[in-house]
User: Fold these one by one.
Assistant:
Number 1:
Amino acid sequence: MKTNVFGYKGHESEGSMQDFIFHISTKILFGEKTDQLAKECSSYGKRLLLVYGGESVKRAGIYDEVLEALKGLEIVEFPGIEPNPRIDSVREGIALAKKEKVDLILALGGGSVIDAAKAIAAGARCEDDPWNIVLGTCSVEEALPLGTILTLAATGSEMDAISVISNMETKEKFGWSSPNVLPKFSLLNPRYTFSVSRKMTAAGVADIMSHAMENYFSLGEENYLADRFAEGLMKTCIHYGPIALEDPKDYSARANLMWAGSWAINGLLSAGKALPWSVHALEHELSAFYDLTHGVGLAILTGPFLRHVLSEQTKAKIAQFGYNVFDLPDSGNEHRDALKAIEALEDFFECELGLPMSLEEVGIGEEDLATMAKKILLQRGAPIMGFAKLDEEDILEIYKKSLKR
Amino acid sequence: MKTNVFGYKGHESEGSMQDFIFHISTKILFGEKTDQLAKECSSYGKRLLLVYGGESVKRAGIYDEVLEALKGLEIVEFPGIEPNPRIDSVREGIALAKKEKVDLILALGGGSVIDAAKAIAAGARCEDDPWNIVLGTCSVEEALPLGTILTLAATGSEMDAISVISNMETKEKFGWSSPNVLPKFSLLNPRYTFSVSRKMTAAGVADIMSHAMENYFSLGEENYLADRFAEGLMKTCIHYGPIALEDPKDYSARANLMWAGSWAINGLLSAGKALPWSVHALEHELSAFYDLTHGVGLAILTGPFLRHVLSEQTKAKIAQFGYNVFDLPDSGNEHRDALKAIEALEDFFECELGLPMSLEEVGIGEEDLATMAKKILLQRGAPIMGFAKLDEEDILEIYKKSLKR
């Protein structure tokens, strides 16, 4: 689960903003800044490990452009990072980084590549097996410096200290974080996302919106500013998601989505809030079992989650989401308005983004649902105490409701 | 003038988000974190120059609390920074910092104290006269590390690289900036603003809103995300400003206003936008002549500025401001809606914040207006090319319209 990495502490006056630390020192180079890459890298050393995924960055010409910009530096290549990046790849990358004595890691790709690069950066400065870093049993005292070149607007990994790694043997997928793996710099060139497919663009938008929603749907704190920021960020996704699908080379759409992705999860929307995330916990279990695209899983689960937790306590916030994000009218009946808000969200995912909206559509049946629900509870050792309390039965019910729309 | 400090560059596709660099590495300690001050300071050295203003921090007990937390460090005190901080005080502070060989500067106060501390931090590592730093004729190659403890939500100086210094001899007030004076850490304890007076609370809210508006009122770029963030930030000011005036110890109000102040001017709302600010240029001239409270001057000038620049080209953005920030209805007539938006803003300043809304109310008559308008143009060497072009006549007309509401 992607957990918040900021040091929360309860505040004495209940219901008010929680104390927090915000410290995101990543230098963002936004736009046509590829020519500045070599200078940024050089300040950390001459020898870098270039971590990337498959052929897509080569087909799009991004790889050539980046290599041209890095002339004069010594580059050790480590391609082949898969979606839902695996601990085996991380182990390989660490061995290579150690053998080649690189000075820094440069990730070229989306969230999966950057998350793997974070684990490699930490593991290269640690003798323990990296799965123990993911499990949190080995603390990250130091790491190689990390730079990123983002090619997909989605996870926000380019501007946060979080990484999510999967272990296919144990069917586990966990988030971990350390301030030592926060990227030193990230190049965000919206043009590098022009070639992202319809499916991945849509899944990315759902991922960004989900990050905003995980922070937004909380109770008992007065984080007015963070909630207004979250609404603005979600409106941006709703406005530009369909435009990017329609015209993948629309610069404004790609630029706004890219920048929104970075701010959805770097602490701006969660500062002062203390609640754990819910939908991500459920989704990570799904994609650990089925290697599902993260954003697709989130889009499927969010509606059923919100309907399940809709109550006297939560209805006002869900209704507010409808008024402020989807501009729905206030009917005077919060419960009804909350249901309309959930429908508007699902309609957006389905009709505007063209995302699958049921587990069955992505080939997932009922067979593993109970096992997954049990596993979430076992791993946490306690119910999820987020927007609403979720125990094993709740989680199973949300999964079951997600089978069909 | 507070100018943007981020490296803008025009983007090839006109009308889209401009390229930029965003790099705000300040570590924010938000809430009851005074106990962490000594640790933060110690990482930069043992000997610090404590820069503060007058008796208000002593009366409020903040000074004692901070000194208690800093036990074990060697503290050289430099009190007496005035509102609209003056270059003479900066010179004194630099001499003291050099003589006492301090390792870091710790600013305890609002924007004036922090702005002065920035100039002292830079000047202590430079042989030139600090007024040349302000004028930009001497570049800031290095600076002493700076930490801040904020006691007033207003200027955002705690999380940006900008400083504004006045020269009473020459009646000049200029902004300057350098990444080297960006605070290393800032303690934002909303409780430390409980004792801020009604007048200064209201002026602070106007200052924060003005920063958001200077970024918001722009043309020709598609910075949808930044504009939605700006609207959310302004809504926060409108919601909590009156609450803080009503109950100065309302934690949520003070916390949200404090956090809003930091984000109004640190680059989040201006990233991707390239236009210079307008109202600040006009106000800095006013407060250089009259030692007026910055936020009060901004509140007086904003309405007349917006009315003056209202045109076919600008009406849509001003009307949008009314719809999205003040929840005004869309009448179908953008010009009329823009006028209503300006009225709503002025009513908020006057009726909700109790701010003076004309130059006459703050004792400023017509006598110096022409001189000031001329001086702004002389100093810039060209009209202000912001939301609308402002030459000397435009500026004088805005000043004249500001005499009475």
Note: Residues 1-13 of chain B have pLDDT under 50 and may be disordered.
Number 2:
Amino acid sequence: MTITITAFERSPDGGKGLARDTRVRWALEEAGLPYDVRLVSFQAMKEPTHMRVHPFGQIPTYEEGDLTLFESGAIILYIAENNPGLLPSDAHARARAIMWMFAAVNSVEPPIFDLTTAKIVEGDKPWAEQRIALVKDRIRQRLAQLSDRLGDAQWLDGEFSAGDLLMVSVLLRSRPSGILDEFPNLAAYVARGEARPAYKRAFAAQLAVNTAPLPTT
Amino acid sequence: MTITITAFERSPDGGKGLARDTRVRWALEEAGLPYDVRLVSFQAMKEPTHMRVHPFGQIPTYEEGDLTLFESGAIILYIAENNPGLLPSDAHARARAIMWMFAAVNSVEPPIFDLTTAKIVEGDKPWAEQRIALVKDRIRQRLAQLSDRLGDAQWLDGEFSAGDLLMVSVLLRSRPSGILDEFPNLAAYVARGEARPAYKRAFAAQLAVNTAPLPTT
């Protein structure tokens, strides 16, 4: 059964791998699954055809036969549950790996994403500069807690898991601001993720899309 | 094996059921599992004893024998996977129920939670009023999309699932602002959740905590 995901026709980051299709590509590469990609323009993303697949008009989505999923966390968990290598077999370790997946998207990503809102969406507001400083401090607070927990471990809980895949993907989004590099153990953790062959293939695939000429219409 | 969760000694909402322990209590009640509650003060929450259980110094946590979890979404999924009634048995329907869990915490809760930040954390800033209006519009945009998807269905995807439990819990947090009631089908959906006996027991349990006299120290 062919797996098809969606991705930006052109990512706002120009190919830095920070759009959410990269984490899904990474999970598919870790699982050794081939996949097709359907590119979606910003305009098409908000049209009924795509909104039927993704009610919030975003990417990525995952289609395989009559299964359609959205939400990168859910897609990665589905891949992890149905293929070896991304979740431990011990029931408790498995529960903790899934816990780190939720921690990534619910506790670590929101303040990081909020910086994009403060810079891009509210960048023209008179309060932008003052508020950006506040949001950066909130990111630092969360990353300091995560840094304390990680300590000098290689991964968050034993072997590499889908929890690390999602956490590394989320932390990558804090690198352009310089905040990730304020926490050397987190920066090294992210670098370990990026060094995985599956990540490299995923990154290269999204880069190829984002540096290819746009289709002429 | 005894299940112990943590909750606020006194919730900031004074017992409206909006703190994240309520959703875990609800899942435990749906599953028919007895549980103990360890109450944590705001001060104790940031101390090493609790930070070892929850690296971000929050509630709820879940302890059962040698398993310790944090993140309400992960706790609810663990309960749902190990007890009947909260996840469908069909593999695709199960994946979609988990998708709605991630959608609740990653796509719907962040703008709703941001309103609390705008009102409470940044309420004394000169930009507070203008920014609150912006954040409210973002909540409306997301809820409009969810409202379109739900339509006149009872639940998000067939039978009630952990996806509905988490989505209803998150939507409840948009009621104090009045925004939930701008979407009659979402308000009715939330009311269906609140009408479930398990929800009522969970709500009553957290209310009892939040209206009891504080321990004198």
Note: The mean pLDDT of chain B is 96.
